[in-house]
């Protein structure tokens, strides 16, 4: 028998990534929600324009989703 999965909000990033790879859009959305602010902040420190940071972060998550 398999172990029950923790609720989305309590799942580790690794567990969410596994679920997302298996096709869970909810898990992917949770990962984006957790990591998007940090990624945008990281990119904003390295790019000249905050809008560029938003665009690069969006492209990053789109590529990860594909």
In short, what is this structure?
This protein has 66 residues and is mainly alpha-helical. It is 68% helix and 0% strand. The protein is built from three helices and no strands.
The coarse silhouette is elongated
Q: Which assembly state applies to the chains in this document?
A: single chain
- Total strand segments: 0
Number of helices: 3
Portion in helices: 55-70%
Radius of gyration, whole Å: 14 Å
How many strands, which pairing sense, and closed or not: the largest β-sheet?
none
The poorly predicted ranges are: none
Terminal residue distance: 31 Å
Average residue-wise pLDDT? 92
Order of helices and strands: HHH
Structural class based on helices, strands and sheet pairing = mainly alpha
| Percentage of β-strand residues | under 5%
Overview of this structure, please?
The chain is 68% helix and 0% strand. The protein has 66 residues and is an all-alpha fold. Helix 1 crosses helix 2 and helix 2 packs antiparallel against helix 3. It starts with 12 loop residues before the first helix and ends with a helix. 6% of the residues are buried.
Features:
0% strand; 68% helix; 66 residues; 3 helices; mainly alpha
Which secondary structure elements does this structure contain, and how are they paired or packed?
Elements: H1 13-21, H2 25-44, H3 50-65
Helix pairs in contact: 1-2, 2-3
